[in-house]
Amino acid sequence: MFKIAVETTAENGKIVISYKDAAGTARAASARIVKNGRASARIWADEMTELNLSPPAGTQIVSVKIAGDKKSVFRDMSALSSQTFKPAAHFDFKVFLLLGFLYFCLWHTVVNGVRPFDDKVPAMMNMEFLRLVFTFGIVVYHLTERLDIVNEGWLGVEFFFILSGFFMMLTFDPARTTFDFAKSKIIHFVPLLLLCAFLGKAKLVPVVSNVLFLQSTGLSDDVVPPQSWFLAVLFWVSLFYFYMMKICNIQSNRLIFALLTFFSYAACRHFGWDGMIGGVFSVRLLRGVAGIGLGYFTASLYLAFQKRKPANALFCTIAEIALTLYAAAIVFVKGACPENKIFAVVCFAGLILLFGMKQGAVSRFFNRPFFAKISACSFAIYMTHWFLEMDVVLHWYKRFSFLQQHNGFVIAGTVLLSWVLGVFVHKYVEKPATAFLKRKWK
Question: Which of 398, 365, 322, 429 lies closest to 146, judged by CA?
Answer without folding.
Answer: 398
